[in-house]
Each structure stands twice: as C-alpha cells, then as structure tokens.
Fold each of these.
Amino acid sequence: MADRLSVRRKLRLPPYLLLLFPAVSFMLLMYAYPFVSSFTRSFVVSDGKLGFFNYAKTWDLYLKDIAFTFAVTVFSTSVTAVLAVLLAMYLRFRQSVVSGMLAGLYKLPIFIPFVVVAQMMTTFLAPHGLLNLTLARIGLINIDNPLELFNFWGLSFGFIWKMIPFSVLIIHGGFQMIDNSYIEAARSAGARRGKVITHILIPMSKSSIMVALVLVYSQIVGTFTLPYMLIGGKIPTTITVDIAHRVNYFRDFGVANTLGVCSYLLVLGTAIYYLRSSVKRVTEAESSGR
Amino acid sequence: MQTRKIVSLVLATLLVSTLALAGGKGDGGGEKLEQVKLVYMTAGDVNMLALGQNVIAPQLAEKYPGIQVMTVHTGPGNAGSQLIFEKLEAESNSNKESWDVDVAMVHQIFMKWAMEKDLLMPYAKDIPAWKYVTSPFAKNSLGVDIEGYAIPMFHSQTALAYNPDYVKNPPKSYAELVDWVKKNPGKFGYNGIKGGMSGVSFTVGWVYWKTGKYQKYAVSGPFEQSEVDSWEQAFKDLGEFNKYVTFTGGNVGTLDALNRGEIWMGPVWVDMFFTFMNEGKLDPKTRMVLPDPGMPGQPMYFIIPKKAAHPEEAKKFVDFVSSPEFQAKEIVMRFNWYPGIDGSYLKGAIPQDIYDKIYGDVTPEDLAKKGRAFPLADYFSAMLESYEKWIK
C-alpha cells in the first residue's frame, strides 16, 4: 500500500509545472546561473586556486570606489525621491495647460539612453560647457574659474536628471490611484495641503514610492556609461568602471566578479525590501480576496 | 521589469545577427569562384568600421569581383579585441573544421592571448606585401614573438598636443612638463588610466622616464617583481603631479577640452588629432610635441584565424591593404595614421604638403628616437595596477 501511494505521488506532477517550465528555465539559465557563477568565480584566482585573494585585492585597490559608488547612489536616490514626489504632487493637483505640457515633457528622458545622457552631460557640465558659459554670461561665475562638475556632483546631477522622470511615472501612478474622496474628506476635516500630502498621499502610496526608489537605486549602482564618460579616469570612480578596467586591461575576471559581488551587496538590502513588500502585497491581496 | 525587457531585446538582436552571419556564410561557401563572402572582424573606434565598410570593401570588390567583404565591428580598445578573441576561442573549442571569421584587425594584447591558444595562421610571409614590412612591431608584440602571424596595418602614436596661444614654449621633456604644470595648475589635462589609451600611454611614458629602463620593460625583459616594487616613488610623484592636473573624460575628452580652451596641453593620439582637425573640431593652430624620453605608440594588426574558411581570399585582402598605394592614399591621407609598412615605399605617393603636415610637429626622426612601444604584457599590467595601488 505504502509503496503504491508513493509511486502515485511521484507520478502526479501538478500540470502547472509544465506551464512554469519555459519561464523558470529561462530565469535559471539567464539570471540564476550567471549570478551564482559570478559569485563562485569571485573566489577563484587566475591560476585556478580558491581563496580570498580577489577580495583582498578589491579591499586594497577599490574600497574607496565602492564607498564612492554607495555615496553617489544614496545621494542621487534621495534627491530623486524628493524631487520626484514634488513633481508628482504638482501633476496630481494642478490640471492646467502648463501641467499638461509638463506631463508630456517630463517623460522624455526615459527614452534617452544612458550613453546619450552621458554625451550630453560631458558637454553640458564641462568647465567651458553650456552650463558654465551661461552662468558666466549672467555674471554668476568667472569663466576662468568655472564650476568643476566632472566629479561627485556632476555625476549625481546626471543620474538625477535621468531618473526623476522614471520615478515620477511610478509615483504619479500611485497618487492617481488614491481616490479623491480621501483628499476631500481630509480637507473638509480642516487639513491643509501640506497635511494632505504628508498624512494622506505619501502614506497611502508608500509602496509605489518605495518601488520607484528601489529600482532607481539599483539602476544607478549598475550604470556604466555615465560614470565612464564623465569621471572614468578620476580617482575615485565607480565600481562599474573598475569592472570594465579589470576585464579590458587584465582579463581579470576574478576581481571583476568580486567587484560584481560588492555591487550585489550594495543592492541586497533594497532587493530584500522589494521582495518582501511584493510578497506582502500578494498575500494581502489573497487573504482579502478570500 | 524594464531591464528584463532590455535584456531580452538585446538577446533577440544577438540571435538575429548570429543567424544572419551564419546564413551569409552558407551562401558564399557553395560556389567557389562565383562569390566569396569574406567575414572581416575589426576592433577599434568607429573609424575602423568606416575603413572596412566604406573603403576596403568596395575597393577590394573592384579589384577582385568575386570577393565580397562583410565588416563586423566589435568596439574600441582592448575590449574590442577581446570580443574577437572570444569568438575565435569559441570556434577553436567547438572543433569546427572551418571558422566563420576570415580576417581580423586587432590590438597588440590580442596577439599574446591568441598566440597562447594557438588560434592564428602563419600567413604573413606568404603574401607579396611582406617585403614592405620592416617595422619591429611586426616581429614582436608586447614581448611575444609574432613574426609571420601578423602584419601591422598602421602605426598610431601618442604625443602632447598644446595650444600655442597659451603655451609659447612647450616643454620638451617630462621633466620640463612637471615644472610647467606647477606654474600652470589645471591647464594640463589627461584621462587617467581608466578613461582610454592616451592617458595610459602618458602614464607608461612617465614610468619609462622615471626608471630609464625602457629597454628592459618593453624589449628585452625578463619580468621581475623587484622592478615593480621599485616603482613606488615614481607613482607617488605622478600622484603629486596629478594634483596640478585636470582629468578629462576620455581620449576625445582631452581633445574637446583643448578645443574649448579648458586645458592648454594634454596627451592625444596623433591620428585622432589630425582627424579632429580635418573635421573642424580642433583649432587649426593646435600643435604637438613628442617629449623626451618618448611616449608609446601602437600598431594594429591583420591576422588570419588558423582555420579561416577562405584563407586565400583573406591573404589577398591583407595584401591589398598593405600595398604602398593603398597605404599612402587611405591609411595616411584619409585616416591620418602612420603607415604600417616601411614609410620609404610611400615616397612620391603622398603629396608634399600632406607629408609635411603629418610629419611637421612629430618628425620621422622623433618617431624613430622617441616613438616607444608599450611595455611587455606583464610589466604593462603591473604598471596599470601600480597606478591604482599608489595613487589614491
């Protein structure tokens, strides 16, 4: 009896597994395998030995770059958050010709690839670039002593410029889903606009704001072209530039993979948050559905 | 979600282009004399693509109507050569009898990788143009013996470009440059070692100057760790020098910054310098000087993979591009490179004014005396890593 039962159980594969197969195998092959292999290969030294040699070298040479990447990412993400929420507010509350035009215009950078953004920023932010020349013409700076922007600030500016539209798109979507009746109820109870924003809109669309920030954060950590073209030769620079350097000049995949692992660690916290919140959303939806 | 979409789009594009490649090869393989599709892979900047697609392909088709060149461009720098290497290595590992790539244009470091894995055909001495090849770079690439496996198509040199409006009396040597930089802080610009090869070249020249061991590092060897350990002070001095320097965004970034007047001097590739000037992207007054004790340059090579599907056509291809006529008209006059073959064979083929322009600031004597090679591969890696180690 017992034998039969177990045989039966083995045979009875749930049919949805078959449906899942293409997607899951694609995920395993294209995402899980490279991820795991880059992790394991970060412990392999060029002569095939195992150990922490790559990590020691990364610690020695690239610690400042990892810190720099983290700082740029956190700074750019926070500024993006504030500005994106403000812009989304504006688009949520104001319905005018200007806001309509703005709603169309702000989406443009989403469709501009990073490499084009980088090219734009190199000429815009250069010591004798458009920005500095304009400021000099207005009389705010002396062109012989221009703003130096091929650094932390210029890089962050590029990221923020590129990332705001993307996050506004998500956050504004979240704001739109909040029914006007909540806002009206709060207003009739005497809440001013500031209160409405801090007590109704932001708390109620917290998840879409966080999702936007998580995506912005992880995109910035992984961007290569903008830092490469803006501050590629500088010290410090970003992790992605270092990875390219290790591969192009040394064919050193060990340290490159180690730097990759460091960037996974940088996004790990946000990834966990993202997964947890989406699992929570699914379970909440299921329990409320039943 | 968005990144996933991009990834799948890229994959789809790759798949389609691979299929197109495979299909193209099948078409040509069948009939022998009718049409041969020669697959030419080239590393380098977009000018290399233009050279293959717009210059070599039509001219070769005119000379040999049966040969049709298909140019595949992999991208600038060693990364571009690496893609070609990976392609050949994969073909070698697959044990195929005939490989897709017929001829390729590669950087120096590629020769080390490919010679180690035995991926190349010793073709060079079979072609008529071999008699024009006298450059030492054709015998040795970063310390690896390559004689017979490659023909340099052109030679490219780095030098210091300067704006004569501000720099009346340009420094003639690295030592003078150090003094100049202290007097003119922020007016010398280069792109470090991660932003392109002109900065790498400047750094390598610095080490040659500080150590005076060019012969050992670039020609004779051997590699010794004690040499590397002795570089600490040289790089700390460079770190000090860097405090007076503006960092630019790449090879092009240095030229742009010169043109905008942000910097007054910086290391550039000679061919890019002339190309920028011809296209009106650089002030025509700008000039160059090759400082003592010299800066590196590099050739790019034609190679034929060991099991290329069409080796005879590939040899015709290389022979054609290495002929004095083509070298004079296209390599020197159109693309502003120094010729890959011996310059003396080009006499008379190049108008005097162009000859004077190309060899005006950096004379053939300068090139012979101060045109250096990049160091042996091990020293090269060690120099780049020492830069990261000592300059924080």
Note: Residues 2-30 of chain B form the longest helix (29 residues).
Amino acid sequence: MAGLHWLPEPQDWRARLSAFSAVAEPSWDSAVALANLRLDFVRTNTLDATVRARLGSAPPRGLATKPVRLALLGSGTLTHLQPGIRVGALRRGLHAEVYENDYGQYWQDISDTESALHAFRPTTALLALDGYHLAAGVTASMEPEDAARALDEVVERVVGCWRGLRAGFGCQIIQQLPLPVFAPLLGENEQRLPGSRMAFLARVTAELRARADAEGVDLLALDQWVALDGLHAWHDGGMWHRAKQEVALAATPLYGDLVARLIAAKQGRSFKCLVLDLDNTVWGGVVGDDGLEGLVLGQGSALGEAFVAFQDFARELSRRGIILAVCSKNDEANALEPFEKHPDMVLKRGDIACFVANWSDKASNLRHIAAALNIGLDALVFIDDNPFERALVRQELPMVAVPEVSDDPTTYPRALADAGYFEALAVTEEDRARSSQYQANRQRDALKETATDLPSYLRGLHMELIWRRFDPIGLQRTVQLINKTNQFNLTTRRYTEADVQAIMADPRAFGLQLRLLDRFGDNGIIAILIGRMTAEDDLLIDTWLMSCRVLGRQVEPTSLNLIAAEAQRLGARRLIGEYVPTKKNGMVRDHYARLGFAPLDADASGASRAVLDLAGFVPAETFIDVKEG
Amino acid sequence: MSEAAFYPALTEIFRDVFMREVALRPDLTARDVPGWDSFKQIEIIVALEERYGIKFHTRELDALHNVGDLARVLAAKTTA
C-alpha cells in the first residue's frame, strides 16, 4: 500500500471539493487544506484539475513560498506523475509548475541550449530514468568486463546529465533511483551473473548513491519504498507494457509527495519540532489516575516495550536536530513525575525543549510552544493518540501537522517517518546542537489563555450523552471508575460492588453512569454521579467523577443538568457540592464555583462545600444531545 | 453480483475520472465520450482494481470495447 496513510481520510470529499469550487474566489489556503487529506490517485487528479481551473496555473499573488518550476525529465511516460507532484507541493504550501520532456528526449533537452527546457528555466530538475532504460543492452551472455564497462557508461551518462543540469540552471537536482523491475535469472545469488539486469540495476543504484553527495544531487530513494511496500505497489508490469508507466498510477500521490518534500526541504520548509502528547502516547495509561506505578512502560509487556521504542525513536530524532516538546492535559507535577522518577523512561526532562502540561485546550498550548521556541506554528508536528485532540488542532491550527495514528504505539515511528515531516538533505553540526540551544532558551512563562473558536468545534462534534441509572450490567465498570479516577474526582470516595448495589436499592439516592458519543466514536462510560438526599431535604452530591479525556467538552454543565433533574424528582430544594482535596484532584478545586454554586463552608483540611438553590435553576444550554438509554 | 449491479459504482468512478456526469449504457464506447483516451482508460481500470481488490489480465483489457464489456468482466472476476 503505497499511500498517504498519515493523512486523515476525507469526510464528504465530493461536498468539500464542490464547496471549494462554488466560492467566487477560492483561496489558496482552502486548496492547501484539501491537499492535506488522504487522497488516492483519482482524488489527487481531481483536486489538481480543480485547483488549476479555479486558481490558474500561475502562483497566487503574495505566496509566502518560492514558486517552484519543476522539470520532469525521463525516458518513459511521465505525464501521470504531474498531478501528484503539484498536489504534494500544494500540501506544503508550495506552488509548482511542471515541465515534461517530449517522450524519451531528456538528453536532447538538457544538452541543447535552444530547447524548451532551457526556455522553462527550472528551479528543480527531477531525473526519472526508468530501470528498463538504464539496463538497455545488458544481457546474460555478457562477459564480466563488458558488464563492468556498461555499468560505467550508464553511471557516467547519468552524472553527465547532472552536470549538464548544474551548468545550465544551477538548480536543485533530484535523481530518482530506479525501481527494481527485473526478475532474477539465478535467484538468491543474482550478483554472481555479470549480465543480470536485476543485479545491474542494483549496481547502478549503489553507484548513483555513492556519487550523489559529491555532485550535490538529492536522491529520491524509490528502492527504500519498494522495500517497504513491495514492488507491486509501485510497479505494474501490465501498465508498463500498455503505457510505459514505470511508476504505477496508484502510487503517484505518494511519489508526488516524496518529490515535494525534497523541494520543501531545499527551501528550508521541513518541520522542525515534534510535540508529544503524554498519556497513552509516550506511555500507557493516565499518569494522574494510574500513578507512576500504574503506567504501562518498559519491559514486561509488548505495549510497554512499544512505548519505549517510540520514545527511543523520538530521542534519536532529537539527536539529529529535531526539537522535542510536550503538550499534555495534566497537572504539571503529575506530568513531570515519570520524566524524573520512572526507571523505564527513555526521554528525560532535558530532552524536552518546551514542556507544557495544564488543562487549557491544546491549540492554545501549541501556540505557546511555537512562541516559546521562536519558531512558526508551521514547523510543529503534533502526535496524539486521541482523535478529539487531533481534530481540534487540525481545525484550529491547520498549519500544524497532525499525523493520523491508531492507538498502537508500535506504528508511531513509521507514521512520522513515512510522512516525511522532517525530511532533511544534510546534517550540520548546528542541527545536532540545536535541541540543547532551544532548551537553554526556553521560556517558563505561565500560559496566557488564547482565544480559540471552541464553540464551532464542539458544535461540529455531534456529541451525544447517554445516561442511565446504575445497573447490574454496568456494575463492574462503575466500581472500576470509582476506584481508579483520581484527577477529576471531587470527593475520591471509593466504593465496593456492595456499596454500589446499596445505592441502586436506596429510594432516596441516585447513581448515574454517563456515556459520551461523538463523530469519532464511542468514548465509553466517562462519568459517574451519585447523589443522596439529606435529612434536611437537600441533595448532597456524594460523588462526581469524570474521565479527563472529555474535559472542555461541556460534559460538566450537562452533568449538572442531570443532577438537578434527579434532585427535583427526589424533592430536593438545594444541591450541596463537596470538594475533598487530595494530592491529585487540584484541577477540580473550583469546580462548583465555575458552575455557579455559592460557598457554604470549609474546614481546616481544605475540604469545602458549596450550595446551589434549585428554585432559580436554569439548565445550561450545551452542544450535547442528552438521552436516557 | 449481476452486471447491472456494477453500474452505480461505474457511474461514480466515471464521474470522478471525467469530473462530470457520464450516462453509462452497455453499448457506450470511448469514441462516444469526449476525453476518454488511453490514459483515462487506465485511470478507470486502476480505480476499479483498487475498489474491488482485483487485477485485470492483459487479455481482458484488450477485449474491452464498451461499458457492457467492462461490467461483464467485473461480474466474472468478482464472483469467481
């Protein structure tokens, strides 16, 4: 599968494309947004044609990037590669105009100063010579010295093209390494047959790789992608015979993306910083709830080892010059603890140039990280296991790259690598020192709240909250949440199954389990509410706990609406909310004040109570649809 | 699946490839549709291969003369 698996699958593709077309003056940015979706070749071609029809083939005025004039030079059919290249460039905010030589005429084009290529004046030349062309004339009956001479000739011919392009245009030169299109004649030890075309192409590939550095040529290493995806994902023998397409049509979106990332890297537009979520991205579990001991990390489980491997990959990236940052919804002290104390953490606090852990929305925090590191938002890659956070950041900050990943950390290194965010053409001493420089400069300023258009995002989530009273089916999950939730837990009262059954049987009490669904799927049971009537006919909120996954999504006021309704059913006049402080629940200290409760009393231990009169209670309006079920 | 059952999917793929509605009928040929050249033909074929997880044989492709042929080959390949 040679596809763009790190990009999100388009929702309503046709509608989005029509919406783009329907506007009187479609914007460049909206075209860039469409290019940042998981497009197959048909959609890539459609987008390319639509953008060219609506925006024209000249670069838009005021474009922040240098316009690209790409010469696509080769021996086979090249036309089908153009849309993928233009869309790959668009994905990175680059405008590319593509030139292609007449069929097979690349050498004439390079050497003749009167040629159309010379009139085109490329800023990048891509030399895409197919394997059949490079191995032409090689045959199994060749003597070793003839095969060696043929190899020399082919390599010198390619290097001659490089020099011709350098002299003619002084432009970036990209050499496509050939696809290994030939079947072996000997088998496993193919290299022992001097005239083997398969072995010959392998030698050409090795020679070009060795020569490229000294000639200042950048490689497009299709051999690495074939190793990953298989030859059949990249080359279709039938289509070669039919149309002389060396690169299979289905692989052209990825091919174009690879070309575009090399051009972007040359313009210094590769991403610079990897921002990591923590819980269930860098380690397994939620540190605030599960504690240091409860984290899945390190030897002993496949999942724990996978998190270690991902951390190791991130650290390797930082050692070659990528800045690391953290953006986590956590109390800072909880988030820092594993970095300081967990023996299996590969990443240390010193590896992280900017560490942000708080309860603000992640879009605001990413703005802060970019400002603190003094880099653009378009230099950030943000990896998070949570689809809600990914979608929020994509909507609020479309310039931040957010790879689409599963909940399996085994796949994270590959997702980051395949996406080519950090494509680099050389490694400098400065790169290797950069990470520590950033850390030295990092700012520790408290976060300023930044305006983010949350309401429109929440509305688009189509959230549905399904509540039901405690029941035998949900009993285990209810007890588990009551005993495990530490952070968003107002009273941290732990109950057994028998305790919960007693609440179910008590006519003067209620227990509710809340499930939240949204367009990303089912979040499962995310909150537990327990209320008890007092002798004075007040409703005491005995337990209110919630999963931190759903913070900032209006679940709190929606829950209050449910509590108030239950309290009124039981005949209560007032709600009494309690807060019992623990080491871990500092985030809900002001929970009741935020919901409009008035302070009632407090004791020396820091525990407090607050009250809300139900007579004047007006249920809060939220974007959540509430159902009993 | 019967041949007729492939027409909705074919219509969708033709719409994507030609970026306009193409009214399909069994005797429709490339000559009847402006822009249906050998490259568009390959796009249609590869889009179908991706959609159904199949691979057309060279002989099958050579024997395609109209939309009806395409539906017939699809029906044969996907029920096999």
Note: The interface with chain B takes residues 40-43, 45-46, 49-50, 79-80, 236, 238-239, 241-243, 245, 248-250 of chain A (CB under 8 Å).
